[in-house]
């Protein structure tokens, strides 16, 4: 079948690599989406394993239409009984980009009415709409005069992993957190730190990766479970085959720290819902006091962007972050995500990489700072004061 995995802007190439490792075929990148082919097993596994996906769609029909009336007529040609039962609640969501409609929500209303009328004509009764927790979720995408109707196999977005019981004021999305970790190139064999961990999302996602545990191991419900053709035995086999215990051979540290003790309590509470054992160490500590474990590793942090701080305070914070990197993180690759471009300048280190990502609606940059042991010149060319062995002149033998 054709499958579409939706994601966030900037995560498309990361998601495509995840799909490739999972066994997807004919993979193509789109705008905030990746298109691929697979079977039912891959569809189920995609929901369980894909860390940077928002939802997994199965297109059921694509077509062109002339106008509103033509679209309304073509919706009546669907056999919706194939995809849901009369007793199922349903909802229609999606995106419309077309000048044909005064209101972008009108095509969604047409599809909703077509589904209800289909069952009314057959059974003299209409199924109920449930916008909050529908059993079957239809996705409608219209671009000019091209329409695609899909089944959303995930239901609730896949970044709702099921382990976060509570969060702070501005928690980072789980799928974005996973995307940042994958973008960083962390090898899952070296130390990992987050010194602004809040309720623990970034360290938790890192620990799931390090232990080879699926992203959605704690999630209990997906929309595909309500489909008439749901294969429960197939799903049970896929789920039971997934690792569900922490590794015992981890010889590196995963640390999350924050100055807010209440946030650390939330982080420790959140991790209890996962089979991670004592993989993560959560600590109440100012980042300036956080020591880097011996050896190399990666630091990824999502510090405050400045919404609740004065300009001078936020600039000073980012300057302190830069000083902390220089003093205490030699040998580490340090990554920072922020929407405050002015504050990022105050880190006063030259980033070796910049990537544009969105954290919610905020346009952010994800910057990499390579912290070398010694000076940059020493890193590139070796120690300049090292004594070199003098070159010996070799005389050519003459016959």
- Strand sequence of the main sheet, in spatial order? 2-3-1-4-7-6-5
Q: What sequence of helices (H) and strands (E) makes up the elements?
A: EHEEHEHEHEEHEHHEHEEHEHEEH
CATH topology of the largest domain: Rossmann fold
CATH architecture of the largest domain: 3-Layer(aba) Sandwich
Q: Determine the structural class based on helices, strands and strand pairing.
A: alpha/beta
**Number of self-contained structural domains:** 2
Helix proportion range: 25-40%
Got a strand count? 14
Radius of gyration: 26 Å
Main sheet: strands, sense, barrel: 7 strands, mixed
Large-scale geometry: elongated
- What distance separates the N and C termini? 78 Å
Mean pLDDT: 91
Which CATH first-tier class of the largest domain would you pick? Answer: Alpha Beta
User: CATH superfamily assignment of the largest domain?
Assistant: Vaccinia Virus protein VP39
Number of helices: 11
Q: How much of the sequence is in beta strands?
A: 15-25%
Spans of at least 5 consecutive residues whose pLDDT stays below 50 are 384-390, 394-399
